[in-house]
Amino acid sequence: MENLDKRCRKNQEGITLIALTITIIVLLILAGITINMGTSNIKDSKENALLTELGMVQNAILQRKTKVDLTDEEYPGEVITSTSVDLDQIIQDINANKAAEEEMVDRKDDNDEDYYLLTNTNNGLADLGITNSEDEYIVNYETGEVINYTTKVTGSGKPLYIYAKTLN
Q: What's the pTM value of the predicted model, to 2 decimals?
């Protein structure tokens, strides 16, 4: 009986320190991968939100251009003058900060007074039906250009600039 008791105790040694360490290391690796993927997904979703909003603003200004052509009402936003905003500097900032594989951004209109600043404070965005935007936009209703004046480029270097190719 005593011999049987010794054999049972030998088989009940439990988990070893090495097995516990390996388990903890595997769990830490899995946690690290999960956190990294979560952070990446958050960054991608913010970038996609910026690009989507840029497209929404462009769609809204093209619709407003059509409406103004039919009704002769005024465009929403503040007219930009060469003293209020340096558009060429903004384009240079975009080109300097964007990813190398993207095309160079170039203004489609040389006249600064064809560009409008749309913000929440001047009701330019609200007049276009865009609410809850924290960014400001510079737009040209004639060329369909839209520049995100607040952010300019995404975290991965995509320019927050768009224009309507069909109008040019």
A: 0.76
Q: Report whether 152 contacts 92 (CB < 8 A).
A: no
Instruction: For tokens 């558009």, name the residue.
Output: 87
* Partners of 146 in the β-ladder: 139, 162
Domain of 147, in residue numbers: 2-167
In angstroms, how far apart are the furthest CA atoms of the chain? Answer: 105
The three-class DSSP label of residue 50 is helix
Six-digit token pair at 31? 């946690």
d(CA 86, CA 166): 26
Which residues touch 76 (CB under 8 Å, ≥6 apart)?
64, 116, 118, 123, 124, 127, 128
Residue pLDDT, tens place only, 74-123: 899 899 887 888 888 888 888 888 777 777 888 888 888 899 999 988 88
Number of domains in the chain: 1
